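Re: that backbone. Tokens:
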């Protein structure tokens, strides 16, 4: 005897699939944000170092 799926169970399965997909996208977005943050941080550190060099040059 095969068990027929209940409409409520089907909706729950579809909802779980959407939640899982959203979770994967969010994890990817968080990784992408972390990579952009790291790249921006490096650029800001370089800019600050350049400003420090300019300021030190004016002190002489």
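Recovered sequence:
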């Amino acid at each position: 005897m095969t068990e027929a799926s209940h409409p409520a169970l089907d909706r729950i399965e579809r909802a779980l699939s959407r939640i899982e997909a959203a979770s994967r996208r969010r994890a990817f977005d968080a990784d992408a944000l972390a990579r952009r943050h790291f790249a921006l941080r490096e650029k800001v550190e370089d800019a600050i170092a350049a400003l420090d060099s300019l300021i030190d040059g004016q002190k002489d």
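The CA atoms of residues 54 and 60 lie 11 Å apart. Helices lie at 7-59.
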